[in-house]
Amino acid sequence: MNKKIIQIEELSIEDLMTVIQNSIREEINASTIGQKQPKTTTKLLSRNEVMELLKISEVTLYNYEKQGKIKGYGIGGRRLYKEEEILNALVEKK
């Protein structure tokens, strides 16, 4: 933090408030420069989209969820799936 010497007796109250506000803004900006916002580009898929993607039936999708192979999320009475998690669930068999 850079320290500045300010002679307060020569400043009006408005000028002092401006100096304080600018200093606070500078500190906030400096502290947030290194922080990156998390990416929230998670695509959500419906049951039908997952069944079509994996070429499976609704019963198979239900069984995969029950076995813990796929994780579903209940939102407002709907069942949604994260596309990334579905793709990660696909593993190569040797």
Provide the fold topology.
Blueprint: H1 13-33, E1 44-46, H2 47-54, H3 58-67, E2 73-75, E3 78-82, H4 83-89
Antiparallel strand pairs: 1-3, 2-3
What does this 3D model show about the protein?
It contains 4 helices and 3 strands; from the N terminus they run αβααββα. The protein has 2 domains: 1-36; 44-89. The N and C termini lie far apart (57 Å). The protein has a 3-stranded antiparallel sheet with strand order 1-3-2. The longest helix is centred in the N-terminal third of the chain and has 21 residues, at 13-33. The model has no long low-confidence stretch (mean pLDDT 83). It has 94 residues and is mainly alpha-helical.
Low-confidence stretches: none
Q: What is the rounded Rg?
A: 27 Å
Strand content: 5-15%
What is the first-to-last residue Cα distance? Answer: 57 Å
Q: Which features characterize this protein?
A:
mainly alpha, 94 residues, 12% strand, rod-shaped, 2 domains
